[in-house]
Structure formats: C-alpha cells, structure tokens
Amino acid sequence: MSRKIVITKINLNRTDLLLCGLMDDNRLIEARLDRLPAQNEKEGACSFDSDRLFGGIFIGKVERIVKNLNAAFVEIAPGVSCYLTLERVSDPVMVTSHSPGRIVQDDELLVQVIRDAARGKAPAVSTNLNFTGRYAILSTEKRVLGLSSKFDSATRSRFKKLLSGSLPENCGLIVRTNAKHVTDEEILKEIRSLTNQMDQVLSHAANRSCYSCLSSPKPVFLTYLQGAYLDDLEEVVTDIPLVYEALSCCREDYRDLSEIPLRLYEDDSFPLVSLYNLNREMVRATQREVRLKSGGFLVIEPTEAMTVIDVNTGKSTSGKDKQEHFVKINHEASREIILQLRLRNISGIIVVDFIDLDDPKDRRELLEYIRHLAKSDPIPVQVHDITALNLVEITRKKAEKSLSEQIKQLTINAPL
Asked: By C-alpha distance, which of 241, 322, 232, 336 is closest to 284?
C-alpha cells in the first residue's frame, strides 16, 4: 500500500480550484476542494480566501427564537443566519445578555460554525467552542476527558493517568487518534497552546463588536494535513509554491508530521493533476454510476433525506452457483461503497439495495464484512442492520460538505 497526499490545481466546470487528495496506490480515496491561494503583490504575502465558514468563531446576534424547534437563528454577519440547537447549549459565552440564564432575541454570544450551508439548509452553529490541534481538541462546554475510540486499553490508561485531574480550568479535552505515538510532553505542549488560543479568543470577545470573527477557518489543505493519519503515508507533494511554504511552516510544530517527506513538484510541462490522472478520478467521483471489475455496477442517488445506493449485476455472468456469484458481487460492491462514501464525503443516512441473498448466513456475513470495511474510514461509520426488504442501513457522521456540494459552491454554473 502506497499512500500520499497530493495538493494541486484542478479545473472543474471552468473554474480553477485547489484539490487536496489522498492517493492510495494511485487511486483517489479522499478529496477536499478550496479556492486557490492568491499572492499579494505589494506585500509579498499569500492569502487563502475561502467561502467556508466551517470552524470559524464569531460574535453572533440572536435574530429570533423558534420555540417549537427549541432552536434559535443567529446572525454571524449581516444577512448570514445560522441555526443553533438550544438543546445542547449548557454554558454559552455571552457578550450581551438581556435575560441571564437563558438565550433570548438580540443577545450577543460566541458561536462556532459546525456545518456549512448545504442542500438549502442554513449553516449550523454551536456555543461549544472547539480549539482543534493535531493531537487534542479543547472545548468550552463539554468539560470531560474524552479519548479516541481507536485507542487500545493500554493507550487509554496512559492518557487517563497523564491528564485526569490536570485538565485546563473550565473546559473539556478530547485526545485524538494522532496522539498515540507522540510523547507526553508533545501532548502537554499542544494543550498549553490550545489553552492560550482559547484564552485569547475569550478575552478579545469583550472588546470586539457584533459580527466580529474571532477565529478564522484555516485553509482546507492545512486542516487536512493537521488531521491526517500518518499510517503508510509515503509523502506530501504539491506543485503550488505558496502551499509548499505554508505546509513547511505547519510541519515545524509537529514532530510526527515533520518526519513525512514534503516535496515541491516542479515539472511545469507535466503537472500533478496529469501525473495522477486527477481529472479522470474526479469525473469518477461525481458520476451517478460506478463500474465494478466483475461487470456489475453501483448507482448512487443522493436525495434530500438520504443517499440511496443500488447494486446491479450488470454484465457480470454466473457459473453453476448463482447465489455464490451474488455473494462475490455483493462483497466487491461493499468494498467500492465504503470507498465511495469516503471519496464523495457522503454523510447522514445511506440505504444500500444489495443483490438478494437467499441464505441468512450469507446475509449476516455480508453485514459483518461491511462493518469490517467501515473501520478503515477515519470518519465514524455505523452499519446498522438489514431490513425486512433486504436493505442495508448505514449512517456516516457529517464532516463538512459532500464533494458534490463543494464543487457546486466553488464553481460557476455547476449543475451536477
């Protein structure tokens, strides 16, 4: 297995974009898109302008309360209204409060964008402010010690011993999977840095006006690298000098990242997008049909409520045992489905109509096989059950926009 992160320019729907992709044996398995960085000619600095709000912390103003939903709409900029679920609000940071103890119209408070606008829905915000590092996440409301579910018992014991009773005051802490192989001092150093970031945001809030952005979202490629798993990662390569410079600075803060080679690719006659056939890979990642090697194919249909995936035999031919043939196609389809969920960043409810299997044992084995494959996805995937109609129910945690939504947002006249 050979994995590398490739960051390059790609043209989609007549718009040049920055693509940050994870390649596995020269196949694209993850993709994030953003605006290209711009060079400031006067100052020589580079800026990474983006349409993303995700992760930004703002002083918002409560526009209205919707009692039947137990929610509020909060403006983070004039005309930019965001959805806030009041059920999860426990100890918000208030800038201006008109009714102590509860949130009311015209209150000003700190919120963080936890979901960009998508499918006609407003962005979502939370009063639980997260300060995210490579190894840990500091939060203002969930005041507990959380540990990655991917840790074994020995690692969990290590971090409980290191951190229990020594959490920063008035905040919670989540230790991320990437912390497993770094030293205690590196963990504690990052926690101190995150605590300083939190203190600065909270102290500045009292002196800033409504709609101020107290913490801007980072460029996609920086957040992607910061959260990347390094298992089997061969290198990070880019052909964009400004990105190379920014990545070089980012790596200095993390020993494990600095051990992964970073390369500036400089062959202008044959750019990375061509070297790795990324135009072809992106077309595959947005097509309705996905072909399987056996001759079967998937049909992937996103809807407002869920994503529906149909498995078809297509031109695949069976031998003497038709059911055994169906089992093989379903297993091949399972591998492709888990990959496509990750590549397209599909989240929420997913319903899969596999080829019907007569033997209950085959159905159980299929379900367990999908669960095994789902563990490879860094984003939590739950494989629930097979319904009476032989439909497999899957859920995948929402993590930013789907790939198709990213393309629509960032390109001009981009019907998909």
From this structure: 336
Eight-class DSSP state of 211: T
User: Is 103's pLDDT higher than 80?
Assistant: yes
The helix-helix angle for 220-227 and 241-251 (nearest 10°) equals 40
Secondary-structure percent of the chain, ordered helix, strand, coil, rounded to 5: 30, 30, 40
Report H helices in 123-183: 153-163
Cβ-based neighbours of 69, under 8 Å, separated by 6 or more = none
| Residue in 29, 378, 26, 398 with CA at minimum distance from that of residue 231 | 378
CA dist., res. 371 & res. 352, Å (int): 14
The values of phi and psi at residue 311, to 5°, are: -100, 125
The span from the CA of 160 to the CA of 154, in Å, is 10
Computed on alpha carbons and rounded to an integer, the radius of gyration of the chain in Å comes to: 23
Are the C-beta atoms of 373 and 334 separated by less than 8 Å? yes
Dihedral sign for Cα 34, 40, 46, 52, please.
negative
Q: Tens digit of pLDDT for each residue in 326-382?
A: 999 999 999 999 999 999 999 999 999 999 888 899 999 999 999 999 999 989 999
Is the pLDDT at 316 greater than 80? The verdict is: no
